[in-house]
Write a sequence for this structure.
């Protein structure tokens, strides 16, 4: 028996519908101007501009230097092997719970798209003073533990593309100092782990290691986050060893799946 056509909800919200349709256009068709979105949705240019501005704010869209709107980091993640991201999250969750049991600190898995890092899985620890779940949140890649680890994998020319000055014309203060960043990324490559002391949030310290695919490519970062008052440099070696053990176990699970 054929499925019935979808019926609209009894109380449709036009603004939500417009935003979802605009996001779909950007993801499936590659990009559009304000005027094109206004025409497609049948709304005024001012309304289309407000819709796109909100999509940009929530990382569902990004505006090029030529003022064309394109799919943003959230939609890029869906387009960039949605099945891989969902499988990575599903495979990672048991290992995150195990890390929390071992370390009693919040554990995370993060991926990178362009210059942003997105937390795709997070398990909170059980302490009253703890770092809350960051699942679904997006941060500048160079300000997160996993983001730095994944940026460290890029050749210089690709790093230049990610942080091209023209991409930051409207927000020059957000562009990192590439000379300093390259020095830090070289150190991370040598060490094989990253320590983030309050770069993304005040009072937070995170330690992370990469998670690699069978061909050696870094797919994600595995990290634990804790209040800075609980971090001590003497713990670093043990934290990294525990994280590496969990990362290798996750890599073995992914190898079987892939």
């Amino acid at each position: 028996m054929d499925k019935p056509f979808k019926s609209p909800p009894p109380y449709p919200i036009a603004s939500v519908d417009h935003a979802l349709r605009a996001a779909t256009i950007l993801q499936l068709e590659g990009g559009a101007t304000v005027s094109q979105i206004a025409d497609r949705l049948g709304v005024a240019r001012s309304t289309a501009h407000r819709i796109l501005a909100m999509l940009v704010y929530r990382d569902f869209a990004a505006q090029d230097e030529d003022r064309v709107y394109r799919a943003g980091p959230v939609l890029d993640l869906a387009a960039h092997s949605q099945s891989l991201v969902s499988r990575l999250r599903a495979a990672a969750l048991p290992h995150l719970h195990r890390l929390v049991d071992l370390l009693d600190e919040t554990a995370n898995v993060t991926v990178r798209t362009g210059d942003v890092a997105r937390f795709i899985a997070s398990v909170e620890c059980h302490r009253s003073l703890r770092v809350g779940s960051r699942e679904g949140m997006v941060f500048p890649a160079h300000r997160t533990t996993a983001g730095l680890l994944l940026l460290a994998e890029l050749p210089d020319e690709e790093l230049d593309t990610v942080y091209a000055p023209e991409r930051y014309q409207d927000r020059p203060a957000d562009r990192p100092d590439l000379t300093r960043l390259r020095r830090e990324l070289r150190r991370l490559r040598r060490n094989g782990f990253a320590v983030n002391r309050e770069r993304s949030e005040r009072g937070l310290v995170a330690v992370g290691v990469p998670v690699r695919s069978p061909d050696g490519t870094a797919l994600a970062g595995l990290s634990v986050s804790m209040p800075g008052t609980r971090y001590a440099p003497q713990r670093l070696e043990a934290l990294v060893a525990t994280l590496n053990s969990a990362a290798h176990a996750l890599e073995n699970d992914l190898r079987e799946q892939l």
About this structure: Residues 137 and 229 are 24 Å apart (CA to CA).
